[in-house]
Amino acid sequence: MKGIEYLLLGIGALAGAFLRYKIAESPILLGVLPINILIINVVGSFILGIFVAISMNFNLDPKYSILIAIGFCGSFTTMSSFALQSVSLIDSKHFVLFGLNLIGNVGLSILALVLGRAIMLAIMRP
Prior knowledge:
With 126 residues, the chain is mainly alpha-helical. The protein is 82% helix and 3% strand. Strand 1 (29-30) and strand 2 (33-34) form a beta hairpin.
């Protein structure tokens, strides 16, 4: 990696981590299920889907992937927090909520990425 790539990675990671912190700092509950992490992962996947479509369409320099995909989305989305939240639900014997959390984070994140990419590709088509 070159100096500019480290700088782009750091800028993206700092922005993603800050935004994740701001969203996660106050619990958002859906019944008893905290959905902050779900929101973060779905929004981050949607952003990544948009970026992938833009990157492919405009053949962006890989440095932009370092900034957006690896730096921002990598530090904004959070698999470790999702895993911890899931284990906590299992420990407290909330098995249905665990299942909903699992399906929500994985399924909705994949759907959000696909939708983000599809929307951007549709917008950019001549």
